[in-house]
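Sample intake sheet
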Amino acid sequence: ARARNKQVSIVTDIRENPTMVGFPGELRQLFANLLNNSIDAVRVNGRILIRVSAAHEYAGDKRAGIRLTVCDNGPGIELEVRKKLFEPFFTTKRDVGTGLGLWVTSNILRKHEGTIRVRSSVESGKSWTVFSVFLPLRSDTAAATV
């Protein structure tokens, strides 16, 4: 409803749909946090792209997994702010939010042995933000408790 009220265009690009082991409620929370932040960030008539694809992690063991990318054309996030995004109670929203969404997201990712990367541009007329999440198809932590 919030996206519709702001006339935000949300485009999905589901390239592959591999099956993974994880906690469904927590993964829904992770996705909701990223999407809601993008909706809050974009202006009226903004654009959000959600992409899901099979992937391998960038570093480490190069495990097979899923990459979830949420991109928006909002105003971007300054480098100094990006450094604090995953701290508890840090927020850039004045009247809404608790500053816990990305902190919770990072804890969910840790539990699932995943990672998150943030890239952003604040260049006037060319601003954007991309959150890229990698989730292994099977994490030892999630597999042990499912």
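Comment: The radius of gyration is 15 Å. The chain has a mean pLDDT of 91.
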